[in-house]
Request: fold
Amino acid sequence: MRTTATNRPKLADALARRDWTEVHSLAHRLKGASGYIAGERVNAAAHALQKCAARLMPADAKSSVAEAAIEFATSDELVEAHSGPEPSEALATAQLNVLFRCLDELVGEITARMAGT
Reply:
């Protein structure tokens, strides 16, 4: 929950500034954190936003991020990274909205479980 509270405003700001490297990095963090707590919908939404941001990054920023991603990626993941709809700012904004809705639902579920214990 701390990751969500910290990264949510940063993610919205990075998207507004069209800082695709930062969007990619923050989406990656949320993807990892949600995977750790089995938040599948958040994980999938963060992954989609991360892919879109990677494709919107300027070429010079892609090199270091792409090298790190390729080091750990499987061949299926590399094919998937270049599939799907053509990236655009509108798509990234829509994906961010989906991610935020999924985060809200997950935080609500966690809060309810904590209140019930």
Notes: The longest helix spans residues 89-116. The two ends are 17 Å apart (CA to CA).
